[in-house]
């Protein structure tokens, strides 16, 4: 694929990174690309502990031109590239939505890997905003690599949850039809349900209204992806909730029934699932809103709220997933 301008590359890697928004917790969602020999290779960070976006992109590029083994862990790929690159990346241009990491954690430093591989340039969408995490830019510049910081606001939006969940990040999730119907059983597709269960596997706390629990009698686990079930806060002015509802019988979780939201102070990554009444009562505490819009119409109760909504990004699959605030 011939590349005519770098703007296209950032469009591509930003869109790819958004597919893994929330799923990289506690790490940020990041996209990267390597252009070498007039071909583009992309990578995204998919899960905490797994290779970072830059590593995926570098490894894809290297393997396209070399007979290399199947490697999966960050450490294996880092060590192999350092030993066998032989200057392959010296004419390459690297693009990444977030400043390459300088610190060593569950994975080795991407900045030090790039220092060893020494591409011609590294274009960075947004500098690392977390205190103590920076330093990647200096490492690259000091090794003679041309570094550009673009301050692309879209790249900031991509990592906003990561910044906030250093303390606390709360988002509200709602599935609805094209005409705003929110009742009547499952609305979203199986693909979207899998995505929600993947997110439940990552969050610390799930908040739901008492009426929803009484009516829907949900389980609120992550069984579709064999994931862990988050703790649950049932927000209700009165109890009257039967304990044989499935959500009470999930192992290794705490369930709270409270008439206040003080419990949110004890958690970092929180999803709220509920209807109109709960949303209108707690929307002042919400950082982001995520609407899963199913491509169908239904003659049922419609969601109503007086609220403004800034769209940050949309993902399209079987449904339209709209991220905003």
UniProtKB/TrEMBL annotation:
Domain CMP/dCMP-type deaminase: 5-138
GO term, biological process aspect, one: riboflavin biosynthetic process
Oxidoreductase recorded as keyword: yes
SUPFAM superfamilies xrefs: Cytidine deaminase-like (SSF53927), Dihydrofolate reductase-like (SSF53597)
EC number, as in UniProt: 1.1.1.193, 3.5.4.26
Pathway membership, UniProt: Cofactor biosynthesis; riboflavin biosynthesis; 5-amino-6-(D-ribitylamino)uracil from GTP: step 2/4; Cofactor biosynthesis; riboflavin biosynthesis; 5-amino-6-(D-ribitylamino)uracil from GTP: step 3/4
Keywords on record: Hydrolase, Multifunctional enzyme, Oxidoreductase
GO MF annotation list: 5-amino-6-(5-phosphoribosylamino)uracil reductase activity; diaminohydroxyphosphoribosylaminopyrimidine deaminase activity
Domain of life: Bacteria
Family: In the C-terminal section; belongs to the HTP reductase family. In the N-terminal section; belongs to the cytidine and deoxycytidylate deaminase family.
Protein's recorded name: Riboflavin biosynthesis protein RibD
Gene designation per UniProt: ribD
